[in-house]
Protein 1
Amino acid sequence: MHRAGFVNIVGNPNVGKSTLMNQLVGERLSIITSKAQTTRHRILGIVNADDYQIVFSDTPGVLQPKYKLQESMLSFSEEALTDADILIYVTDVVENPEKNRSYLDKVAKEKIPILLIINKIDLLKGQDELLAIYDRWKGILPNAEIFPTSAKEKFNVSNIMKRVVELLPPSPPFFGKDALTDKPARFFVTEIIREKILLHCENEVPYSAEVIVEKFDEKEKSIHIMTVIYVERDSQKAIVIGKGGSMLKRIGSDARKDIETFFQKKVFLEIFVNVEKDWRNRENKLRSFGYLD
């Protein structure tokens, strides 16, 4: 009997959803930084075995939207409650459970299996702290199975995976058995570059930046990639480029190394920077960037 199912990972920003996703899938599909709102899209990571297929889904952190881009991000998180066979809700040891409580109340009403992940337990000083957090969350999501975890240290991740496999419903596979994700190669180029912007630029710049691949010419041993970073203001463009092009060179150099690792090929990367004013609030631009259908 073959089993397969959609396992959606949800929770508030910066609790470690993407780190957990990458550990469960065994590949670095979602970008990870210490900054909130790193994930903007819903990203599938597919795990295959002879007798099962797990379709993990990483989602943007739940937030109160301030502009149309964040409305789109929230819609991805809302959709994750409607099409899951198993729901993984991720919190951590410092988060206030009252944060975005309306979304949590929706999770509590779900009839499907829920795994509650209390992440970052490596930050705790002792067992008593963990027990207090455990009891508090058990009162909020009484039907959930709770897994104290450190995704960064890979603690308890194998037990989460084991339980997911046990809960999968009977089903044929949804994707080919050699599939790793539903996203095209170009998507991961944009995510890697956006990760470097998040890491190297401060304040609002990373959240105002979007990356588009204009050219992806893949040969047997190399890939020629041309990309454009869009920002909202001229001042942001100046920051991304840096004095004498220093910041753009740093972003490009770091991104190229990771892209080469991802594709296992030599990469020739070109990056340009353009201004697209107020793109986060313009539906036509959000549609062209893949945030709206």
Note: The chain has a mean pLDDT of 89.
Protein 2
Amino acid sequence: MIAYLWPIALVVVSNIVYQICAKSVPSGIHPLASLTATYLVGALVSGVLYYALSSDPSLLREYGKLNWASVVLGLVIVGLEAGWLYAYKAGWQVSTGYIVQSAVLAVGLLLVGYLMYHEALTWNKITGVLVCLAGLILINYR
């Protein structure tokens, strides 16, 4: 059970700290300049953890296993990070911005799951999406 739950706990805690950090980036710095420092730290930590946690570390051997997904993931991560930095600069609140994107993301991933991975589109999922959309209306209602 721990092996099942710890990754989600890591994602949740990391997302909370991430949102705090993204909101705390100084307003005077260009978001993409900030991201260069972020990714340098991320690359360094990833490299150290790779060598610390691998029984037979060889980055070159591992890089030989890469496919298109790793390259596109890198591009998408920059989009995610930059999007959040620009969203906070534009005035989005931590308490609503993440909820809005999560609800829209849930709808998008429901469609992706159905169309690309042939996951079941059940009434429970559809109802959940409708509840999310109703929540968006309530959260943004002034």
Note: The chain has a mean pLDDT of 93.
Protein 3
Amino acid sequence: MGAGVNNGAKICIVGGGNVGTVLAGYVASRGYRVNVLTDHPDSWGEVIDVTDPDGMHFLGTLDCVSSDPAEAIAGVEMVLICLPGPAIHDKLLAIKPWLRRDTLVGSVFSCTGFFIMAIDVLGSGARLFGLQRVPFISRLEKYGHSAHLLGYRDCIKVAFSGVADTDGVASLLSEMFTTPVSVLSHPLEVTLTNSNPILHPSRLYAMFKDCDTPLKEVPAFYSDWTDESSELLIACDREFQLAVERLGIAPGHIPPLLDYYESTDAPSLTRKIRSIAAFQGIPAPMKRVEGGYMPDYDNRYFTEDFPYGMMLIKMVCWRLGIATPTIDMIIRWFQERVGKRYIDGDTIADSDDARAVACLDVSSIDYLISSMVH
């Protein structure tokens, strides 16, 4: 795997959703040998057609599409995981026997605890990398056959663990994705984010905390954003930023949300969020019931952003001795609604529910914290 040079490197994409499909087609079109590990291999074609915003087509021919890790993983030089947080831990266990010692294992989105789960499963010596954001904005057109690359990033930020030649791997990723890559100094800089893990739960709490009877209509998640949602989000971000400061994360790597959204207070943040074009038309996660609509607690806004997002932030803050009263209030509301027990008061619960969340592995979190703080 030469730095920045396509030498026919063999890569396995794990997961066949929006991002996985775009990456498989795009990277294969650039001459890389691409395998896909998916639960639905029979639905895939040999060639993936990816279309970008300018109408360009990238046709990528895949080497292998399989549900068998022994077939899809063996012999590859890089594994790129494109899975939601709750699915990552078990998939790491499944692929572990087929990984070589020098195989690079990475995730396209790291804030659901990828590094924590990978260190737990593969060990602290594993060669790991994680992106702060997905490399492309992606949407499926026909499963296993075609997808849309809706937008490119100006820059991709990546962090590493157990990798000596970070600049070389960053150059390879830049060549694969045809996008500049910036190397961050520590895995926690991509593990911790004040995006979805606090943005979605804050809004959900404001919308549904008093929702005990069906609503007649489904509100817009962003277009109907309220000042109460903004106030909760700002309060959660203040607690989050205490951890950023305590860990010594460089200023600007994870900016406060008011700075990020160029706002000064709750009303200006509300106006900003309501005005973002990409957010228009996105409905609240609800399902139809008799008499109207109720929150859909099986939606990923709940199943991922609470246990694999906000709870991860809570765990890090708890290990650092940082109080999180607003985050705790929102988590308590969520666990009451879904019949789980993740926290007791302001501490992590000694419960099967908390232990079942793979990204909350205490030893791996403490390993990352100690390696950064010291």
Note: The chain has 15 helices and 16 strands.
